[in-house]
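User: Hey, quick favor. My workstation is busy. Could you predict this chain's structure for me?
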Amino acid sequence: MQIMAHAKLNLTLDVLGRRPDGYHDLRMIMQSIDLADILELDYNDTKELRVSTDLHFLPNNEKNLAAQAALRWYERQAVQEPGKWDMEDLKRCFSFDGLDITIEKHIPVCAGLGGGSSDAAAVLRALDLMEDACLCPEAVAEIGALVGSDVPYCVIGGTALAEGRGEILTSLPPLPQCWAVLCKPEFSISTPALFAKIDSVRLRCRPDTQGAIAALRAGDLVGVARRMYNVFEDALPSHRRGRVMDIKNVLIQCGALGASMSGTGPTVFGLFDDECAAQEARERLSSFGGEVFLARTV
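Assistant: No problem, here it is.
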């Protein structure tokens, strides 16, 4: 089976505080776009779970989130204690013939776009179909929560409010279809470092998430775009924050309705209601270095 794994954008991202379990409570509006990895799943007769990608530096073993998703899937089918299985448990306790997962990467890695989480979600959705499990999306998302905080959203997709660690989802009216121009600078950001720093940072402002939800309900694309903000921008090192601001300024100058960083970055995106303006922004940002994409909302 071949299946698409769509990237996500954070239209808003707010960190509400640290929880007793060490995680942070988040409140964010998520949006799927048509930038996507392509996964192919095939049964094999080797009794092995094998993962391959076209990027040599990505893990091809259980450290890959796609493999983790498959393990959690079969673990649930065997009604074992969730979140505990490894490959040897799978071979010992379940009638497992073997599975090959091939990933053709298009979503940039470590970019704040949920690429690994989306791959994991795609594996769960594919296995649900391949094995005729007929689980509801919410049940598949519960399995995804054992893999990572963004995986439940990536199972559901579309436009949604995510709360808790990201696993508490509320579907929202779809964002009016538009173009998104994305620019991932030539550096990466440490997600654990940003989460560690966010508690001590004085935030310049917080996103108007409730106002953005009201704009979604009204079908007001401009209203949503004007309320986009990501508090992690305030936790970036100063030289990285300057780079993010430069990209945002180019997007706004080219006619973006709003611009923000996605996830813990460093990818910056702008929303456009005019394809020609989006194309111009992509061309201008191509000279900035890094990776630039033009996508549509899904």
